[in-house]
Amino acid sequence: MSVSSKSGEDHCCGACAAPAAQPRPELPRQVAWLQGITLAWMTVECGVSLFAAARAHSVALLAFGSDSFVELLSATVVLLQFLPRFPLKKAHAERTAAVLLFALAAVVVGIAVLEYRTPVETSPLGIAITAAALVAMPVLARLKRRQARVLNNPALAADATQSATCAYLAAVTLAGLVIYAVWRVAWVDTLAALAAVPILLVEGRRTWRGEGCGCCG
Q: Is 131 exposed, middle or buried (0-12, 13-18, 19+ CB in 10 A)?
């Protein structure tokens, strides 16, 4: 056997023994835009909501601001899948998103219990930010679901659920703030916060089981 053929044989064996590592998927432009917009909007929404909650002593606004923070984390989890120096698998990202949903449900209940008797004030700023979220978040949720189906990405689908949940929370929070501003019903603020808990638990359970996306069928 010639030296050249032996060298080629060794090269072949070496290639078979140590297959090349699969490259990490590139970040799709649509996902980059969606998550960039989400991060920017949720940063503003979180800051404004928490500031308004502190001024108005509103449990519902505090829960809504906490949801905005969880949405920030969820959007970050999606982006981490595509970073070469952060090896986050899809399954791990999906489980993380589910844990965030459960954590948010616990935060909402805890805040509602602790702040139940705290006097509430009317919050024009809170009404404005929740009304804006009610318009923006359903659009983001729909676009994320579409991309999740295209990419078969459960974490992005779970993040779409987070955006849809944010829209739901915006609706119930806005309703509570408006009802209090008009009729001064003190308990409606706590009720608005607790109304989001069932959907958070259901969606968290579906996401944990890998059913939260509808992209894998």
A: middle
CA–CA separation, 60 and 177 (whole Å): 8
- Copy the structure tokens of residue 191: 């009720």
What are the helix (H) ranges across 81-153?
Answer: 90-114, 124-151
The two three-digit tokens of residue 38, written as one number: 């989400």
- Angle value at C-alpha 207, between 188 and 84, nearest 5 degrees: 120
The 3-state DSSP class for residue 115 equals: coil
Domains identified in the chain and CATH numbers? 27-208 (1.20.1510.10)
Residue 20 backbone phi and psi in degrees, to 5: -65, 140
What is the pTM for the complete model shown? 0.78
pLDDT averaged over every residue in the chain: 81
